[in-house]
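dumping this here before i forget
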Amino acid sequence: MKFEKGLNTATLLSNEVKWRQVALLERDILLKNLKSVLESLRGQVAGKFKDEIEESVSMVDILAVQLSKRENELLQQKTEVTRIATSLKLASEDARTIVDEERANARTEIENARAAVQRVQQVLKDKENCSQRIGKQAMDIKNEIHVLRDQFAEMSSSSARLLKELELHQRFEENDAPSYELEGLESLGSMLRLVVQNNVSLSNASVQWFRIQPQGSKTEIISGATKLVYAPEPHDVGRYLQAEVNLGGEISVAKTAGPVDPAAGLVDYVETLVRNPETEYNLCGVRGGGDAAPQAMFWQPRKDLSFVLGFETARERNSAIMLARRFAIDCNIILAGPGDKTPW
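structure:
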């Protein structure tokens, strides 16, 4: 646009120079005619009038010389204006060519960018669809795992019940029928309950729970486990549990059919808590009834003082026990109770 404006200006200047040149030509013709008239009159008059005519002729000659100079200047201006107009015209054409090329390049770049954006959008859409499919597959796998866990728990319970019935049958055949047995799932996060096979009151009985190594039958007393119910803790995993009942001096024993099974995902959960030291536990205190045992933890800071801490879930209770043992081992602290020095 600037080049075209300059070109228009140069054209106007060229036209103005032409008009001035035409005007000068007309003046030149008028002066020549005037000089001819004056020269014809000069031969016809004398005296004062002849002197005035001579002066007029001189003035006409001076004007002719000035007009000649002015004409030369106009010719030079015309030449310069013509040169400028030619240069501006060439520059305008070059600029128009450059602008057209840049516009074409810009259109090409815009089309390429639009195509790239469309490809990226398509890739993101494909990834989103793939993520949705993977999420659905993960959810299906998670549901299958839950189903398998429930089936495994049911099979474990059935297996434990069958083992107990087999043991009872064997003892019955040996005429040594037990007075007590343990009810409940033999796994971490569950609760075991000591029940009587006949109508025997346990109000005056004392109970103590033990853990037994699967090899060697080494027995360890469990501190604070003196109730009819007991919730296995992480240190019991892989070991048998045994309840000893002392009623009127007669001691009876009830034992689990197999080692305590671990809780799925508990170790990974504890490692996550270790990496996040700002995790807080919600202690609930003792909640009524023996059904709260899987969420409760026995704590004895000294011999004459003990507490039962209640957690919201069995998972939190078991992870708290594991963390306490882990930090105690790291700080070379021995926790109260047999076997608590053993790393979990």
